[in-house]
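Repro:
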Amino acid sequence: MSEERPAPHPSEDERPRATDADAWATACAEDLAAEQARRRDRHGPPPGSAAEELKKLVDTVADKLSGLPSPLLGGLAGPAAQQMVRQVVQQAKAAVEPVIDRNPDVFDHLAAAGSELLAAYRSAVQAQEHRWTARSADPAGDDRPDRRDPGEGTGPGERIDLD
């Protein structure tokens, strides 16, 4: 049988200190907040989500279109044409905004997909440009017999492989 012994009282050095258990996390959060404030001061506010940016674009385009005079109708229809343009712009805006509000993640995904497509296009173009410049930079490349099409006679043309 075992007797329960009372736990010994910790000495002064062994007692837990009354400090913040997450001091490192707190210091990191404070540093991050200070860095974000510094960047906001230097560069302005960060861009919002793709949906917010699209809303800003729609609002800006709507304002610009509503304020433009109608060059197609000239001075004949003046205020009536302006009113018609404003009405069409407001209807388009009313149709687009609910879609943006209901599906904000879709626009973030579309923006990311667009960035990926742009990166893929840029990579393809750079690879092709590298092949073109490597071929023109080779001074002995024009004298190689394998670049001429042997079935075409002695003309200046060369065979282009389309594969």
